[in-house]
Amino acid sequence: MNKKQLFAAGAIFLSSAASATELCLLANNGFLIKGENKSVVLDAMVKKSMYGYPALSNEVYDLLIEGSAPFDDIDVALTTHNHLDHFQADALLEHAQRNKTVYVLPPQAKADIDAAAADHGLADRLVTEVPTHNGKAVKRRINGVDITIYSVNHGGREAEGVEQAEKNHSVYKVEIDGASFTHLGDAKTTVGLLSLAGIAKTKTNYLLVPYFSAKNPEFVHALKQAWDFDNLVLMHIAQVDWEDPKQVAELDKTILSLKEIFPKAWIPVKEMECRTI
To answer: pLDDT 10s digit of each residue in the chain, 277 long?
Structure first.
């Protein structure tokens, strides 16, 4: 499928209403939020499949790098952490060469950029401000987009405590066209640590959560204490060979089990599967 065919196919997911806001799965935890005047991508700078999780297809990756529709005029690209299934420095550098996007990322991801290209010349387009766990999140308007940044532990790293969380993992709340979207990255933590990060019954319209965390009762309890959300989006689905009936059946089984816990959750599984806000 060439790029024109791909966009024609993807267009069936995108609303024809000029004022509509779209939330679209890219790959794994990668999403596009495309508003009327502002657009953001999250955990989208992934060129190669890693750890059994999908990367962008070559066709969609090329559109992203070129800044072609639907990735024209991406204002901000957010990275939750520097694991290779969420962020790859070479992809960000390639994107930055052709686009005027501002990149928001934790210090460890910024260090990867510096190591990959010490003379990248992006100092004024890399935002690495990180809040401390004192109950005060960082709220900024970046390239015209309102963004709140929280430091939250990566799943499985609770023992590392506050100091490590401040260095390696961010949660973002993005506000576009009157709607708010909160992306948890790989966060899987406790009520206490979320409260320390300044998250307690925090309002958001769309909450994007790793599906494996949503199957953990302790985390589900923490989730409901921390966020006042209207819509739940489950993400981080492993790579699937759609030509393999066994893999498709296994995915269907996973989705059914998740629907038993969260019947109204949206669980996108295919690249450029979108929801109109």
So the answer is: 444 445 444 443 454 444 589 999 999 999 999 999 999 999 999 999 999 999 999 999 999 999 999 999 999 999 999 999 999 999 999 999 999 999 999 999 999 999 999 899 999 999 997 776 566 789 999 999 999 999 887 865 444 545 555 558 899 999 999 999 999 999 877 787 788 788 889 999 999 999 988 888 888 888 889 999 999 999 999 999 999 999 999 999 999 999 998 999 999 999 999 999 8
Measured CA to CA, the distance from residue 223 to residue 50 in angstroms comes to 27
Partners of residue 154 on adjacent β-strands = 187
Predicted TM-score (pTM) of this structure: 0.90
**Residue 62 corresponds to which tokens in the numbers above?**
């090329």
Amino acid identity of residue 152, one-letter, is V
Maximal CA-CA distance, the chain: 51
| Radius of gyration of the chain measured on its C-alpha atoms | 18
Q: How far apart are CA 111 and CA 27, in angstroms?
A: 24
Contact at 8 Å (CB) between 107 and 38? no
